[in-house]
Amino acid sequence: MKHADPDSILSRLRSQYDLSQSRDEFLHFRNPYETLIATILSAQTTDRCVNKVTKELFSRYPDCAALAQADIRDVERIIHPTGFYHAKARHIIAASQMVMTEFQGRVPDEMEDLIRLPGVGRKTANIVLDHAFSKTAGIAVDTHVRRVSMRLGITDESDPDRIETDLVSFFPQDSWAEVNGLFILHGRRVCTARRPACDQCVLFDLCRYASTG
Ligand code: SF4
Questions:
Q1: CA diameter of the chain
Q2: So what's the architecture of 31-133 in CATH?
Q3: Which of 4, 44, 164, 196 has fewest C-beta within 10 Å?
Q4: Is residue 190 lining ligand 1, measured as CB closer than 6 Å?
């Protein structure tokens, strides 16, 4: 097994995945409000599932002011397919209310403010900062990023915040947003949870999991 250096990992994954052509596989949003709500809804489900429900959700509730006053049963009905819909409905309504009362109706653009919103942890905050404000404060760690990072041997941690700490010290800052997208696509298409296709993987000779079986 060769040393898994960040440049090799990035260049090989870039050769496989074109993030600009893969937007349909990620969450759809048009502004900071939609980014925040779609990302909260994406917990424990797929981006495709979220994209299906947000069409109706954002047409009925186009901003934080509207969602802050929503009937929770109506919101639960719309987001039901995403799972955990009682908690998610509570969170997105409460987050919208907090945006209205504490941030003058504007989704905040600082990590410490975002993680105060109900239902928002570092993963969600990183995605909102990156996609809505073009600010890179870290690397969002979802289930795919977690699995690929652990298998490659970049981290031995299981807690997402600690994995993020290992990732941001491994990869250069100007690649952090890209690492999230590349690892998600690699985790969905090749390094899948149950049966990773190691024999087709461009990272095979760099991978701890592949070298140890
Ligand atoms: S070699 Fe296998 S375990 Fe390692 S990154 Fe590739 S698919 Fe995942």
A1: 56
A2: Orthogonal Bundle (1.10)
A3: 44
A4: yes
pTM, to two decimals: 0.86
pLDDT in tens, 99-110: 999 999 999 999
CA of 25 relative to ligand 1 center, distance in Å: 21
Intervals of CATH 1.10.340.30 along the chain: 31-133
Active site residue 123: yes
- With contact defined as beta carbons under 8 Å apart, do 119 and 175 qualify? no
What would the pLDDT profile of 4-39 be if each residue is shown by its tens digit?
Answer: 799 999 999 999 999 887 777 889 999 999 999 999
Q: Domain 6-23+139-212 has what CATH class?
A: mainly alpha
Which residue has the CA at smallest separation from atom 2 of ligand 1? 198
